[in-house]
Amino acid sequence: MHCEALDCADEQRTCVATMGGKDAYCDACLEGYWEQGDACTALTVCGDAEYQVSAPTQTSDRICRALTLCASDQYEAVAPTATTDRRCGTSSMCHTDQYEITAPSETSDRTCSALTVCTAEEYEAVQPTPTSDRACAAITSCNADQYEIEEPTHTSDRICKNLTACTEDQYETTAPSATSDRACTSLTLCAEDQFESVPPTASSDRECAPVTQCEEGQYSAVEPTPTSDRACLPVTACDEEQYEVAAPTPTTDRICAFITLCDDDQYERLPPSATSDRACARLVSITAGVAHTCALDDGGRVTCWGIERVRPAESLSDVVAISAGDGHTCTLHENGQVSCWGDDLEGRITPPENLTNVVALAAGRIHTCAVDDAGAVACWGMGGSGQTTPPSDLGPVVGIAAGMGHSCALEESGDIVCWGAEMYGITVPPDDLVDVVAMTAGIYHNCAIHDGGKVRCWGMNDGNQLSVPQHLENVVEISATHSHTCALTHAGGVSCWGWSMEGQISVPQGMEPVVAIAAGASHSCAIDEKSHVVCWGADDFGQATPPPQFQP
């Protein structure tokens, strides 16, 4: 019989096939079964909480036992197997200087590690717990601009605070230390009458001192500043040869300058004073009337002396020419205008309103004439003899002269034309008088310079006013009035002729070389090369007595 025919499986047994024609048979129990008597019984299966303490045999069942359960303070030191029990171990306890780095589990022990020990430069930033280490941190070091307000402990850091910074108007009264702040105090402010004698430092106050007050006779050479004192110096005293240009002030010295010394050809117009310089001027021309004399300096100033009524009422300036009549005087200014003063009989001191651009003028006894830059002539004043009515055919004129009742003009051609009263032939120049360069008119006579410095006169000769001195030559200036005439030579010599009732033609001896002359009614005057005025002749009104500044 074959295994297929047997029900061995139903009996939980194995079928054994035989050889040699023998029948198959059911033998031992199948795996997982054991023979319990005649029957095959399923082996006991240990549960999840059991382990096999005795292995099954063919004839005995498997023996299981409950696994050991670890207590709460234990862990599974050796895991159970199918045939071994669980082995438990007591969980380790960390020491006081340890902490648990790994917690115990069912199958592992607790792991401990030594707690970190903070060094002397550290503090305990985080305290340890049973399951965490101690955390140390470096103790903070206060920097240079900080100080310690709380010192460090084992469990706390050092606390630093920024040092107080003194402001610009403060200084350090107490220096900071490692554990204390800086103390600042306000800087002292100097008063208005003080200056900073010692400047403040970071750690010292400002020192103030009173500003020096200059004494009488001193001035402040250097004014005080907030940080410097006033410097006082003695006020300069001007020497005898100096004058004060600028007076001292509280902050400036007296300024002195040397007094001007007049040149040899100048006069002292104004004497120096303690506060003004000497004013010097050079006399350039002179004119004489009946009872007065006037001089003109190079500053355009006019000075008159003699009868008071013919002196100018106010100071004149910018004058370039001057001419004196009987009781009046006229001046020509730089702008070509004419001004007159004195007796205004017949309008002799009232020039025509349209008179401009004048280049020459002459004051006669009772009238005045002028020449403009076009060479035209205008006359005003008493004109009863026609002396103020120039001929209509008068050519361009370069010079003019006025007598009493007549006038004469020097034309550009060098010819002389006269008009007015015809007595004594005064309006009829000699036919052979040519190349005239200058001329002058008296009351009833005229004289002219011609032919390289020679003099020729015509008209009335009742006082030898036509008797020109022999050998008179090189004449550069000539002046006639009333009944006498004076001439100036190139060498500076003076010659006078004509009437001499008052000594008006008696030229003083020993005069310095002369640069200008003038003949009045009964006196004569000259300016020498040192700007001195010398007069001679009648002096009944002071007309021959120059002011002190003009006298030698």
Describe the structure.
- The chain starts with 12 loop residues before the first strand and ends in a 15-residue tail after the last strand.
- The mean pLDDT is 94.
- Helices cover 0% and strands 41% of the residues.
- Strand 44 and strand 45 form a beta hairpin.
- It is mostly beta strands and 552 residues long.
- It folds into three domains: 64 residues, Tumor Necrosis Factor Receptor, subunit A, domain 2; 70 residues, Tumor Necrosis Factor Receptor, subunit A, domain 2 (Ribbon), CATH 2.10.50; 272 residues, Regulator of chromosome condensation 1/beta-lactamase-inhibitor protein II (Methylamine Dehydrogenase, Chain H), CATH 2.130.10.30.
- Strands 25-26-27 form a three-stranded antiparallel β-sheet, with no helix packed on it. The chain has a three-stranded antiparallel β-sheet with strand order 28-29-30, with no helix packed on it.
- The chain is rod-shaped and about 220 Å long.
- It contains no helices and 45 strands.
What would a concise description of this structure say?
This protein is mainly beta and 552 residues long. It has three domains: 3-66, Ribbon (Tumor Necrosis Factor Receptor, subunit A, domain 2); 189-258, Tumor Necrosis Factor Receptor, subunit A, domain 2 (Ribbon), CATH 2.10.50; 279-550, 7 Propeller (Methylamine Dehydrogenase, Chain H).
Task: Give me some keywords for this one.
three-stranded antiparallel beta sheet, single chain, Tumor Necrosis Factor Receptor, subunit A, domain 2, 45 strands, Methylamine Dehydrogenase, Chain H, 552 residues
From the spread of the alpha carbons, the general shape counts as: rod-shaped
CATH fourth-tier homologous superfamily of the largest domain: Regulator of chromosome condensation 1/beta-lactamase-inhibitor protein II
| Percent helix | under 10%
Count of helical regions: 0
Radius of gyration, rounded? Answer: 73 Å
Count of domain modules:
3
Mean pLDDT: 94
- Class based on secondary structure composition and strand pairing: mainly beta
CATH architecture of the largest domain: 7 Propeller
Strand element count = 45
